[in-house]
Amino acid sequence: MYFKFRIFLVFLFVISCQPIEIINPVKFDYSNFENIYIDAKEVSINNKYRSIFSEDNVEDQIENPPINLIKGWINQNIKTFGNKNKLVINILDASILRKEIENQNAKKFEEKLLYKYEVFFLIEYKLLDDSDHVLANTTVESIRSTTSQKYISLNESDLIINNLLNSALKDFTNETKSLIGLYMENYIK
Question: Which of 15, 64, 122, 159 could bond 92 through an S-S bridge, CB–CB 3.0 to 4.6 Å?
Fold first, then answer.
């Protein structure tokens, strides 16, 4: 009996020494995104977005909220050339929401509730001449969402949110490049 107990303890010890999977966080490297060159002397960034604290809003619970990501992207990827004009960038929305939704395709032993994460960016670009007359403007909107199980680890949740933010920023970059190319084509290079 004592021998079986020792074998059982050794077995438990060996099992408990198994490596734990550590999920590495997503790094936001703005150099992976395309630069946009606009004919302007200066850039003015106005944060008009005010985070709404609600049960669905999770901006205060994550390491890299969308507002910080969009500011970092603007600072790193919007480049100016020339010695006249002023580019005004108004950040109107940079939010991430988590809503509880019903899993319509849930099988017998699967979770009935899921989390839906949604990232929304709304940015206005105005190019003004030296007399503050509007030369060109456009508004860029981008939305991206994903779902996850409700009961997951914090590491998995962080990974899902960071991947969603990275994908949303890629979508936003592509949409910005497209709309600035369309509406400000005479002022870009």
Answer: 122
